[in-house]
Automatic annotation (TrEMBL):
Residues 73-263 form the ABC transmembrane type-1 domain. It is found in: Cell membrane. Keywords: Cell membrane, Membrane, Transmembrane, Transmembrane helix, Transport. GO terms for cellular component: plasma membrane. This is Carbohydrate ABC transporter permease. Gene3D superfamilies: MetI-like. One of its GO terms (biological process) is transmembrane transport. InterPro entries: MetI-like, MetI-like_sf. It comes from Shouchella lehensis. PANTHER family: ABC TRANSPORTER PERMEASE PROTEIN MG189-RELATED (PTHR43744:SF12), ABC TRANSPORTER PERMEASE PROTEIN MG189-RELATED-RELATED (PTHR43744). Pfam families: BPD_transp_1 (PF00528). The chain crosses the membrane at residues 12-33, 77-98, 110-131, 137-157, 185-206, 242-263. Belongs to the binding-protein-dependent transport system permease family. It is a multi-pass membrane protein.
Amino acid sequence: MKEVGQKKLPKIFLYLFLIVSSLVSLFPFYWMFVIGSNSTTSVNQFPPAMIPGTQFFENARNVFERIDFFGSMFNSFIISGTVTLSVLFFCSLAGFAFAKLNFEGKNMLFVFLLATMMIPPQLGLIPSFMIISQLGWIDTLQAVIVPAMVSAFGVFWMRQYISSAIPDELLEAARMDGCSTFRTYWNIVLPTVKPGLATLGIVTFMNTWNDFLWPLVVLKDQSVHTIQIALRTLNDVFYTDYSMILAGTFMATVPILIVFLLFSRYFIAGLTEGAVKN
């Protein structure tokens, strides 16, 4: 009986910790909705409003009147979806090559790839802008899509995942059956590493959706604004309507939550895959 009580006590603390952590994580979204559903005057009072109000739809209507909200959301969907699919294909393909193929200079190339992750992306802002400008891509969606079609982190992640998830014997059996290298990658490797792909896809989609600096530099025309750039234009010079801005921000956050909820099972499986292997 004593052992049973000792086992239950740590579980209680564990569940309590998980509950508190969940509440702390969810509070920013709740507070965002509280501000977005009240007036800015109510938020600026002391103590501020702590429960949702009744003005969310009014604030949302103001957002729709000020910016092309749905057009900007569509641009963000196009950019984020295209970049995510491209990153999943190219990074998994490169990760497969680094993990399972033997070619000259493989280790040196992989070290060089890891070294690029240490360079701040802001350092490449001006050279990248000059290249995009020379190509005539300013104010076009491909100016944001093409530079992000492959990522060093994605290659590193897929290389590590494929190394641990795909046994060499499976690939040897495929070669003996006459499979080409690409067919082995497409028919055997990709179906096996779905959790890793889902994890990389969620991270890539969220980072691309929330990207602000590069789209701000290359997208000047309002017709090609992403949702993050469009929300920035809600700021006035002399007055900031926080309720309207937070209402728009809350609506722009919903797609990310939906994507995460749809693929959360694969996301968790991808992160814990190595922990359950013998």
